[in-house]
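[step 3/7] fold_predict: job queued, chain A
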Amino acid sequence: MEVKIEIPKYNGGTGITYLWTDGFELSIAIKKDAILIKANKEGLISMANHLLNLAQDDVPKNHHMHFDELNSLEEGSSELIIEKV
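[step 4/7] structure written:
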C-alpha cells in the first residue's frame, strides 16, 4: 500500500498547518500508566501527517501541538501534547 502525505511548509508567522484526512476518528486515553491511541485509518494517516509536520527542520525546538476533545479528538479523550526537542 502506498500513501502519499502532503506536508505543508512551516510558517513562523502562522505556525503549523494541520491537514486532517476526511472521516478521521482519533481518541486518546490513559490506561494505568499507558497512553492508548485509538484511530481509524484516516485518523492514523492524519496523525502521521502531524508528526511529519512537526519534524520539519524549520519548526523550532519546543514547538508543540495540542489535541483534546475540543480540538479534533473524540469526546471523552484525554489531552495529548507532542513537543519537538
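[step 5/7] annotate
The first strand starts at residue 26 and ends at 31.
The CA atoms of residues 7 and 52 lie 7 Å apart.
exit 0
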